Every structure is written in structure tokens, then in C-alpha cells.
Amino acid sequence: MRTVRTLRKGAKLMVPLDVLRPTQITIGAYHVAQKIHVTRRVPPDRRAAFLDRHRVHVVIGPEQALYVVDHHHWVRAWHDMGMSHVPALVLADLSTMTEAAFWRYMVANHLVHPYDERGKRRPLSELPDAVHHMRDDPYRSLEAFVQLAGGYRKVKQAYPDFRWADFFRRHIDGPLDTRHNFAVAVAHGFRLAHSARARKLPGYVGGLPCPVRRAGR
Question: What pLDDT sits at residue 217?
């Protein structure tokens, strides 16, 4: 029998970017562009420390496959910048599990989120096999920019960003395919995030004294 050496939680690795497997179907393209901009502004002598602070969180699965479970937008940004290797932080080494047991663990522990760009759940078999195959969901960019603007707080819960994206999807009409439309949507999203409609969402910060209208095209 072949012996498999497992890694402890918290192990730090430098891994080839093209071997990383996403555990989400979508990213927000505008949010990726923002992270590219942030990365490029880091001076060369501070780049290593910057990357270390934003290590990609991974789980090691059967056959030593590396699955990204957090920082999908960072890793996609670094892919689009042409980086070949990225720093990673091991959250769990599940390489001794069977394939079926591995995915049961991933689902039970909220480490996989197979929802498409319309917010619909898809089979696990439709997860992308590479970082560059993740699809754009503009509402994921929308929730990110609303959060960056102070629309809501980041909280440690399972996938609060997806909950906010789906909230905006229900209340703000698209398409969000131009900078103008996206900017208008962010303004509407910010007001919506402070409205009573968002009270039950994670990170809600309270109301604003202004009416909320449904955003049109």
C-alpha cells in the first residue's frame, strides 16, 4: 500500500497557479480587475510580503489535488497578471479520503459553493477545472464594491458575499455590462444595503434616511 504523507493545517506552500481547482463556479470580473490594480500598485520590494498576507486558502483532496476554498478573486487576478506560482495556506489535508467522502466533507463544511452566474445551484460536476474557467457574475462584483464602500461589514459566516449578491440580483435590474450601469447599480446597492430590506443579511450596518427605489436599466 502506498503511504501518503499529509500536511498539517496551517502549512505554507508555493504552488503552480495552473494546478489550483476552484470550489466556486463564478467570480466578479470588475472585482478581479480591482485586485489586479491593487496588486500592481504594490512596490516590488513589498510584493512578497503582500502576497504572503493574501495567501490562497486551499484544501488538499484525493490524488493531492489542490482546491481553492478562499481568495478566488485574488488567484484569478494573479492568473490574469501572468503569475505562474502563488503562495497558499493549507486549511485541511484530506488527501487520504475517497472522492465521495471528500465531497461530502466539503459540502457539510461549506467549503464548496456550486452556484452559477444566475444564482442557481449546479451539480458539483460543473465546477471549473481551472481558475481561468470561472465565469463572470456581475452581481458578485456589485456586492464587493458595495461592501468596499461601507455598505455592510465583512463577517465570518459561510458565503455572506453570495447572499448579498443574490439580494442585489433580486432588487437591481441588469444588465451591468457597462461602467455607467455598474456605477449606478453600486449607488442603488449601497442604499439598499442600508435599507430595512437587508436587515437579515450578514454584516448589516443600519439604515439611511433616504428612500430606496428599484434600479432600472
Answer: 33
